C-alpha cells in the first residue's frame, strides 16, 4: 500500500473546493437549529457547577471561616443547585425555538432529497 499517495490525496481533498450539496445544506441547517441551545446549556451548566462548588467550599470553611461564610456558602450553593436544575428545561425550550425557526426549511430540504432518490 502506498501511504504517500493516500496522504497526498487527503491533503488535496482538504484544499479542494467543496460542492454544496443538499445534504450538506441540511446538516448546516440542523446544526443552526441545535447549536445555540447546546452552547447555552454547556456554558450555563459549567457556570452553575462552579457557583455550586464555590458555595460548598464556603459552607465547609475551605474558603473563609466562621458562621457568616457558612451561611453565605449555603445560599450560594442553593443558587448553584437551582441553576443546575433549571438548565435542562431552558435547554429544551431553546432547542424547540431553534426547531421552530428552521423546521420548515429542514423539512422542505429533506423532502427534496428523499424525492430525488426515488
SSE layout and pairing:
Elements: H1 3-15, H2 22-59, H3 67-116
Helix pairs in contact: 2-3
Describe the structure concisely.
86% of the residues lie in helices and 0% in strands.
Keywords:
mainly alpha; 118 residues; single chain; elongated; 3 helices
Low-pLDDT runs = none
Tell me the Rg in angstroms: 24 Å
Structural class: mainly alpha
* Main sheet specs: none
Distance between the termini: 38 Å
The total strand number stands at: 0
Can you count the helices? Answer: 3
Quote the beta fraction: under 5%
Overall pLDDT confidence: 90
Would you list the SSEs in sequence order as H and E?
HHH
- General shape: elongated
Q: Give the proportion of residues in helices.
A: over 70%
Task: Describe the protein's architecture and organization.
With 118 residues, the protein is an all-alpha fold. It is built from three helices and no strands. The protein has helices at 3-15, 22-59, 67-116. The longest helix is centred in the C-terminal third of the chain and has 50 residues, at 67-116. It is elongated, with a radius of gyration of 24 Å. The mean pLDDT is 90.
